[in-house]
Specification:
The protein is mostly helical. Helix content is 63%, strand content 3%. The protein has a two-stranded antiparallel sheet with strand order 1-2. The protein is flat, with a radius of gyration of 21 Å.
């Protein structure tokens, strides 16, 4: 499906979908644009799942319980990182931006250092 150029775009935009779309009449174009808007929002969700993998521990286990535990811990660490980044932005910078100020690597290094001190 090719859409005509929009504001901010110089050429037609191509989208691939298995949904039935049409741009013959105005109503069809509006419905198609709604679908595109919904799919565009999925980008953030996909990025979150990719980022969660950075927080997961590496394992070779094929046991479902072990993999589920590792995924649960990764999600917990990911959410803690988001919370800490939010608090840093709210208290230190007094402004919010979509790009995190505290990188995931820096947060994980801090957590790793604290855990090594605690367990060491």
């Amino acid at each position: 499906m090719l859409l005509p150029p929009r504001e901010g775009y110089d050429s037609k935009q191509a989208f691939i979908t298995n949904l039935e779309v049409d741009d013959e009449i105005g109503l069809d174009r509006r419905i198609t644009e709604q679908k595109i808007t919904q799919y565009t929002a999925r980008g953030g969700i996909e990025t979150s799942y990719k980022k969660i993998k950075d927080f997961a521990a590496w394992t070779t286990s094929k046991a479902f319980e072990v993999r589920l535990f590792h995924f649960g811990m990764a999600v917990l660490l990911y959410n803690m990182w988001l919370l800490v980044d939010f608090l840093v932005q709210a208290t230190v910078y007094d402004e919010f931006r979509p790009k995190p100020r505290l990188t995931a690597k820096r947060f994980l290094d801090f957590v790793d250092q604290r855990l090594r001190t605690l367990l060491g």
